[in-house]
Amino acid sequence: MLTDIGANLAHDSFDDDLDDVLDRAANAGVERIVVTGSSIDSNDRAHALAGRYANLYCTAGVHPHHADDYTDTMHATLRQQMSRPAVRAAGECGLDYFRNYATPDAQARAFEHQLALAVEFGLPVFGHQRDAHDDFMAIVKPHLGGVTRIVAHCFTAQRRELEDYLAEDFYIGITGWICDERRGSHLLELVAEIPDDRLLIETDAPYLLPRTLRPKPKSRRCEPAHLKEVARTVAAARGADEEMIARQTTRNASEFFGFDDAE
User: How far apart are CA 51 and CA 45, in angstroms?
Assistant: First the structure.
């Protein structure tokens, strides 16, 4: 059985057929899904989904793309959202200099505020970083004594970043990016260097449809059922059995999010 640690099921592309999406996930062996919150609105929608389906949980955060809008009022609302029992991590939060939809200063302030909330509520951090590694680490490090756990969500970077994360005991989230021969082939080598107890897998649905899927889906929308292909690719790259990868990543997800079955 598999756990998808990050799926954007609150995205409107799932509005019309979510029950079917979840049935396909269950048939593919995905027993638990953490729905990513990335804005005040999506946090509410993710939480509503977690209340509707027994195998769904959620995060609550403000993505760096929305950091220019991070006000005291938003912070107070986010504090209330993070206090909900179904919320298992703070985030998606961090820095994104690839698109820079918000200024770097605004991103840093919003990230600092969310790290403080993670410490306040004892939540792990669902971290986003793109083209901002050095600043990301500079902001995170002073909080590591209080932050319980942190995952580098959708890791797509290079060896230096991976080594920095692992030096601080980060978990590493691998998505369908590893299945992309155009831009993710370097991950086939790097994924073998992630310790067993730090490896997590995710779809980031509806994004990052694995390009290795055969036959190719008619829709380009990624969904949690495709986590099986991520697990297959990770297993092959690590020279491991798929069942072992499923067990290990599910165990790691339980420990990271504090699920009742964590060993």
Answer: 10
With tokens 């730090």, the residue in question is: 198
Per-residue pLDDT of the chain (263 residues; tens, 9 = 90+): 999 999 999 999 999 999 999 999 999 999 999 999 999 999 999 999 999 999 999 999 999 999 999 999 999 999 999 999 999 999 999 999 998 999 999 999 999 999 999 999 999 999 999 999 999 999 999 999 999 999 999 999 999 999 999 999 999 999 999 999 999 999 999 999 999 999 999 999 999 999 999 999 989 999 999 999 999 999 999 999 999 999 999 999 999 999 987 55
* Of 121, 62, 119, the residue nearest 93 (C-alpha): 62
Length of the chain: 263
Does pTM top 0.85 for this prediction?
Answer: yes
Beta strands in 36-164, from DSSP E residues, in sequence order: 56-60, 87-96, 125-130, 150-152
| 37 contact partners, CB below 8 Å, separation of at least 6 | 10, 43, 46, 47, 58, 59, 60, 61, 81, 87, 91, 92
